[in-house]
Amino acid sequence: MNSRRHLLLFLLLIELICAVKGNVVFKVQHKFGGRGKGVEALRALKAHDSGRHGRLLSAVDFQLGGNGKPTDAALYYTKISIGSPPNDYYVQVDTGSDILWVNCKDCDRCPTKTDLNIPLNQYDITASSTGKKIMCDQEFCKTVFTGPSSDCKVGMACEYGITYGDKSKTEGFFVNDYIRLDQVSGNLQTTIMNGSIAFGCSTKQSGDLDSSSQAVDGIIGFGQLNTSVLSQLALSKKVKKVFSHCLDGRIGGGIFAIGELAQPKVNSIPLVKNEAHYNVLMKAVDVGGQSLDLSTDFLGYDTSGDTIIDSGTTLAYLPSGLYNQVIEKMMVQQPDLQTHSVEEQFKCFWYNGNVDDGFPVVTFHFQGKILLAVYPHDYLFEVRDNEYCIGWQSSGMQSRDGKELTLLGDIVLSNKIVLYDLENQTIGWTDYDCSSSIKVIDDVSGNIYSVSAHDITSCSSLIKASVLPIVLLIAILLNSIE
Fold it and tell me: Which residue among 182, 310, 410, 455 is the active-site one?
């Protein structure tokens, strides 16, 4: 979801696959992939971002498709199979939320049609021989709500309610059932693998979740909490809590893998402790080599602890004081360039040249002298021929203590490997060709295997997947944003 959606599990706000011994292949697609560029896409993009602002043994590789262009994106979704017998569900991939949920049979206001050219399905627990409701006194329910509910009675289901930043909401109950995956068992060979996982069954929805233009079957969260798919797999010793992604901002698709990264090497920094999102400490920002003023006296707040790395968000959101400085410095080389507003939210201009020649690189500095460089072709996007809009946005978002947030989305993270190591509570990155491949480590044998980039916009993408015994493969059409 794109400025990541904040979960409200009942009154608890959560702010922004079992045993696997091989690889698993999924098809993942970008929600708005193929719609082309144009100002019409911007309205849905910004609304999506706004809604998002509001959670040992194998590796997992997700085949990627789509692109990170703001005029051609909004979210990424993947296909999973659930139940016995299995049925397919298309779910939005979100590293900023912490549970998996799908629409339930006879759900009130759940979508029955979509403009995404995918079939929609509703989970029926009575049709699955392995599906079981999770009761309010069971451990998973206690984990979700950080303790037993005082209203819990024998035989009562573990119910939930999730409210996102755009005020859309899903309500329902938690279920435990099998997920069916295509486990990679050799070079371009797969076998069927089943695994048990807890997830939400949505019985009622409101807001944009039932929109026919954006509808999918649910959401799969890759956040840090114990309720996420990643955490559940790690708890059962199926995977390590380590994953990486490489979003190809040039030709689309990319790489998304769960498992230890052997190559390329990245420099990592600690995650800020006790945060729901992937927060890091930012030390400085420069535009074209010229440092900006991040002092508390100048900006009126401390930016360092409130920088969130969020691949579910398309754009980049900066505190107002920092935003104004970035815009001013990036336009210095073009003093005669006139800007105009598109959709009343985007600062845009007409430009005939090569943007990388006419505008500066924006570089974020983090502790340990770790840099994150953002190039003009990343932060400027073409909405019509020679009309470019600026991907930097003034955030207007605040942390719980009232500080303005810095949220770095896909325009910053594209064309880089980003490694999330939750085992060691670190995050790192490096510039990389996301159309190539990476190498991951098989923890059982110690062998190193290649994982290729994917773009499932073409039918041939599935045979691009390289083998990694003990590696799960998933395809994702990445959004231009979540």
Answer: 310
